[in-house]
Amino acid sequence: MDTYIGVIGGSGIYEIDGLENAEWVTVDTPWGAPSDQILTGVYEGVKMAFLPRHGRGHVHSPTTVPYRANIDALKRLGVTDVISVSACGSFREEMAPGDFVVVDQFIDRTFAREKSFFGTGCVAHVSVAHPTCPRLSDACFTAATDAGIKVHKGGTYLAMEGPQFSTLAESKMYRESWGADVIGMTNMPEAKLAREAELCYASVAMITDYDSWHPDHGEVDVTEIIKTLIGNADKGRALVKRLPALLGAERDDCPHGCDKALEFAILTAPEKRDPDLVAKLDAVAGRVLG
Ligand SMILES: CSC[C@H]1O[C@H](OP(=O)(O)O)[C@H](O)[C@@H]1O
Ligand SMILES: Nc1ncnc2[nH]cnc12
Asked: Which CATH architecture has domain 4-289?
């Protein structure tokens, strides 16, 4: 099977350069329009697609990003491996602004977003105990190291609703009691939806600030975040460009089973399934729904 890398670029990353046959394509989905057109092309012989999470010009807030349409659109294009690149705050002294973290766990504190492709008429329960793909995450870690980026392997990302940053009390609680390492607003429900769509998913968090807990750094200031992001965005793009060579143009089945997540997940009896919902699931669950 061909490898097809999909990159979801977060704040500060609205395009990538260097793709052969680069073309912005419009992808329609049954879940509405994605955040923007998707930039498709080939890099070092490997198919790539790039989607700016907030849209070019930063149109969508973390709450209004059309997460279901974004994941459906990537799946519909044939993407096999999704890499999320995001800005985040840090809860750890040693995870400093400018560093990257290849996140491996999430705490989902979002509450105003559609979190599943499934529902009445087609119920499914997938496991997200291990919400990121270790194979893809390892490739991201190697790519970051090779690109000379200071990168931390593993970390827990707390996804908050936003758009306001955390209060001091929340920041201290997430750090001291909940054990979170970084905080952002967008990786959930994105990671859950990628798992439902049987896509391998890895998350690269680019640290822009110390959130509000750090006694020497004060409040989160979006102007400071943007300054750090401008430096980080080039590093993020350098990391992404090393992935095609590391992953190769051909791929086997995922050794961790990300691409089989729906195998036994759908509980609704075939005769009780809602045909309209089943039709909407053509890209996401066509493999198991037929
Ligand atoms: C620009 S600060 C807040 C904003 O940045 C992060 O976005 P993304 O994850 O898409 O890089 C954070 O989650 C907030 O949406
Ligand atoms: N401190 C922070 N909290 C939430 N999202 C962020 N994105 C960048 N920094 C952040």
From this structure: 3-Layer(aba) Sandwich (3.40)
